[in-house]
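Exercise 3.2. Students should predict the tertiary structure of the chain below and write it as structure tokens, then compare their answer with the key that follows.

Predict this chain's 3D structure.
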Amino acid sequence: MYDFATIGAWMEFAVRWLHVITAIAWIGSSFYFIALDLGLHRDRNLASGADGEEWQVHGGGFYHIQKYLVAPDQMPGDLVWFKWESYWTWISGFALLTIVYYFGAEFYLVDPSVADIAGWQAIGISILSLVLGWVAYDQICKSPIGKNMNLLMVVLFVIIVLMALFYTSVFSGRAAMLHLGAFTATIMTGNVVNIIIPNQKIVVADLLAGRKPDPKYGYIAKQRSTHNNYLTLPVLFLMLSNHYPLAFASEYNWLIASLVFLMGVTIRHFFNTMHARKGNPHWTWLATAILFIIVMWLSTAPLYRDDPVEEAQGAALRYAEAEGFDEVHDIVLGRCSMCHAAEPGYGPFLWPPKNVRLETADQIARQARAIYLQAGVTHAMPPANLSYMEEEERAAIRRWFRAAQEG
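Answer key:
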């Protein structure tokens, strides 16, 4: 018989599956149309009056695509609107945020060592930040700043850095990174819902009424679409970051997130330039690589004060026999095994998270690398430090792991 916890786990899986599917559809269509628009041949005098055209081949068929700068003289009655991919990506994403982080606020949203707030307060901050974030972004775009694309991008990056600092000061590291992604994704979907689609509908209505559409609506929609284009890759990184403690549980997680947005710019600049047939700016590869190396360094920067040794894979026996293992064994049993057990005795778990069991010496030794990364190098575990692991205990884990490496 299925109980509520089992049903809830499958509901989470279903919503996550929906979120991934709709995100793939949205991002895929977005990238396709950006590449198409940039690659159109606009140097041809087309009898149709279109702004540009391109021939493409896919799936054994040939496609002749034309783009009208404003709209064709006669509006077809079977327009396809690309909007539901965006809508359902956000809807499913917010549903997943609710299921995992709101219902599991004690485990994933609140970290008393960061901010000692109640779960309902954290949820309120979460929702309010998403709403106010969209309002502030929209007003800035509509202000005189929005008329200068370069200045606008700088201002928006500053806002993202400030939001990264804010989120990491009130939420757990895992939740902070994910919320920065949700903050950005809300802006992206808000652009589609409130700007891009409404402006396109105004143009369609004018054409159907025999009026000449105002080109400004197309310009505004293009501006917001460009923003979405550059924000997509960082959002994907942030959504995946909760699986990688080196990203979200680092002391400099806010800075890591900020640099990821710069990597999104360099990567998209390369592809946008290439698709526009304006060359191949390979310097963006080097810039992206340097930024990623800095991100990797920042993820463990505080530990360089302790002179860590190079990490390497080793046999479980070596970890079990390494100096300090007995102390670490007791630490793990006291701080981790209540969840990582065949029958978890703490939290809402029906089985050990990720099926990792830490009840015996052999199990602990076999998970040495994961324990080192998630509880020694970072503060990813225990989640929200619910079992109150001390810094001295984390240091003991690091000493034990390094001793095994040296041995």
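Discussion points: Residues 21 and 81 are 18 Å apart (CA to CA). The chain has two domains: 4-302, 316-406.
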